[in-house]
Amino acid sequence: MPPSPPSDSSRASPRRLLRIALTLAVVLLLHGLVALWFAGYRAPANPSSQDDTPVQVELLKPQPIERAPAPAPRPPQPPHRPAAAPAPRPPTAPPEHAPVLTTTQPSPVTTSPTTPSAETGADTGAGTGTAAASNSTADRAAPASAPAPGVKFVPPPSGDLRYGAYFNGNLNGTATIHWVTDGRRYRLAIDIPVPFVGPYSYESRGRIDGFGVAPERYTEQRGRRPADIAIFNRDSKQIVFTKTPNSIALPDGAQDRFSLLMQLSGLVHGAPDSYRPGVAREFLVVDNDSGETWPIVTIGDESIRTDAGPLQARHFRRLPRRAGDTRRIDIWLAPSLDWLPVRLVQTEPNGSEIELLWQGRSAATAQLGYDEGVTREASSASSASSASSASSASAASAASSVPAVPAAPAASTVTAPAPASGIVASPSQAVSGAR
């Protein structure tokens, strides 16, 4: 009996196994790609070294900036003196009628004698007055001839700055920094796309004062959350917040998270040779509910690869603010871009990175408009609790027979520095509510 042919099921078995194997391979490949995307796997264009922080050689504290001298006032012009009118000629006697062939002898013309002493006295008085006015003007102009001492500061020029926004090496869109200043006031607005959460928006407004960039209001809005505002009250020397009733003292040179970039840019632009490797400068940096000191150290000059080509930049890094501080911030300022930031990297404690990398700039589109209403509202709300304390102190001093001493302002409650404070919050922080 001839052998029976193989069944269809036995012939289909290898094909079925092959299809299953291919399906599994495709599924594993897709899972691997997704895992690589979340892990941010890519060779960084600008790898960051973890051990390149130099030994600190000098620590700079906030200092007044050098202010240009006021132009000397022009000396006043001496009053215009009209020319002296000529002495009037005395009337001549009318000629007497004489017989023909007889001439009349004219009377001699007489002039009134001048008084030399009066003219000399007038001229001397005018000369003395002019000299005194000149000396007085010179005395007033002398102090303005020399510039006020301080460190040199050159604020960055206005413009819209575009950056590629990367999270763990993956491009998530374009971040924009709008910077505009007229030399007296400034406005800084930042928009950063964040996946799954929405854009992060930051704004800083204020003045250019004797210490450089001087914020008056700082606003944070993360995704769909309500905006948080910090008010820098220059009159009371206090910083108050809409997020908390607490307040902190306002020292000279204090910055918010993003005004720090322009303050550092202006200081380095004014005196680039002062920022050699190892030189560190301290800044009080304020976020939406607290403030703390950031020591920023100079690392050195490096080449940064951008879409526009390599750019030479000076590397700065925030040193640990306290024991166990593992969040790191690195800033690169490019001299060819007027010392504007060309790269920013914030490294989280878990190793993830948020990076802004230079793409280009254009003319400024932001305006210097300023809403005083928000400032007044936040200031009045934050000082409501202080009013009752001040009134109690005033009543107590009125009852005393000893002459009253002006009541000191209510002691401010200093909020403990947030251990997770950085320039930009990561998406995981936005979801969990941490900073």
Automatic annotation (TrEMBL):
Residues 98-149, 380-421 have a biased composition (Low complexity). Residues 66-155, 380-435 are annotated as: Disordered. InterPro entries: DUF3108 (IPR021457). The keyword Magnesium does not apply. Keywords: Membrane, Transmembrane, Transmembrane helix. The chain crosses the membrane at residues 20-40. Residues 426-435 have a biased composition (Polar residues). Pfam families: DUF3108. Residues 70-97 have a biased composition (Pro residues). This is DUF3108 domain-containing protein. It comes from Burkholderia plantarii.
